[in-house]
Specification:
With 299 residues, this protein is mainly α. The protein has one domain: Farnesyl Diphosphate Synthase, CATH 1.10.600.10. Helices cover 76% and strands 1% of the residues. The chain has 16 helices and two strands. The protein has a two-stranded antiparallel ribbon with strand order 1-2. β1 and β2 form a beta hairpin.
């Protein structure tokens, strides 16, 4: 019975992520010399860290669905889900010790630390009207960009690429991850749970000041800003109808989407150091794919 329970628990969590585990380092590795077992192992390690953060995120946000299936928190409760996230983190760090290079272990550990620090800072700054855009972007780089950058940078490192190429691919991953998080923040406001397959509208409810809201606070007049800040400070509901009724919401959203698109353009520039290959093309296509998702968020 215990064995069957463990299998059910892990299979329900891992099934949606199998392809990402295989692909996490595939294209960066292929673009810089070729994909090896070490590239795949680093992909698995980083995906385990990513999964751990999602498990913990869903507890913090009170999310009930992700990828159209119940979250671990919804199925097994917060206590067991916290332990599950911890187990995924520890297993990832344990796998990292299989490499002979202490440098790889250090980089994996740094990425895990950045992700956790980013989540802590974001949680601390909820309902905090002093949050600046620079601080917001730094949180995004830590909680999301760090894992993307580790995947692309480590892939180049494992291929023996030059320091310059490794830096460009690290920067590509950092900006790609940050742009993706901006997309996710916009999606939380305008997406459909039926289409996206996860719980939405949690950012405003939990007091997360994302880029569209920061833009709105920046561009609204004094009376509008007063209404917004009052609702934020008093932790009153801030759904789309309320936002649209207070200020020029669409302009704030458009600006956030434009910011993410600019980052994707910079990502493509970082790829100029790579020789032509199907893998380099795939890395560029990823940016166009995310760009298309961003455009779907425009009202």
């Amino acid at each position: 019975m215990a064995s069957r329970r463990r299998i059910g628990f892990s299979s329900g969590l891992h099934r949606p992520t199998a392809q990402r585990q295989r692909r996490a380092n595939h294209h960066p590795g292929g673009a810089t010399g070729g994909v090896t077992d070490d590239h795949l192992k680093v992909g698995v390690i980083l995906e385990l860290i990513h999964m751990a953060t999602l498990v913990h995120d869903d507890i913090i946000d009170g999310a009930s669905t992700r990828r159209m299936v119940p979250t671990a928190n919804a199925k097994w409760g917060a206590g067991l889900s916290v332990l599950l996230g911890d187990a995924l983190f520890s297993h990832a760090l344990s796998l990292a010790t299989d490499f002979n290079s202490i440098d790889i272990c250090r980089k994996v550990g740094q990425a895990a630390r950045e992700v956790c620090q980013g989540e802590i800072i974001q949680t601390q700054r909820r309902f905090d009207l002093t949050l600046t855009k620079a601080e917001y972007f730094r949180v995004l780089e830590m909680k999301t960009g760090a894992l993307f950058a580790s995947a692309t940078g480590l892939a180049a490192h494992l291929s023996g690429a030059s320091a310059d190429t490794e830096k460009h691919l690290f920067d590509y991953g950092m900006k790609l991850g940050t742009a993706y998080q901006i997309y996710d923040d916009c999606l939380d406001l305008v997406g459909s749970e039926e289409v996206v397959g996860k719980t939405l509208r949690t950012d405003l409810e939990k007091g997360k000041l994302t880029l569209p809201i920061l833009n709105l606070l920046e561009t609204s007049n004094e009376a509008q800003r007063s209404k917004l800040t009052k609702r934020i400070v008093n932790q009153e509901p801030l759904d789309l109808p309320v936002l649209v009724g207070i200020a020029e919401y669409e302009g704030a959203l458009e600006s956030a989407l434009d910011t993410a698109q600019d980052m994707l353009g910079s990502c493509r520039a970082d790829l100029s150091v790579l020789p032509p290959s199907e893998h380099a093309d795939a890395l560029e296509q990823i940016t166009w794919f995310l760009g298309a998702l961003l455009e779907k968020c425009r009202r």
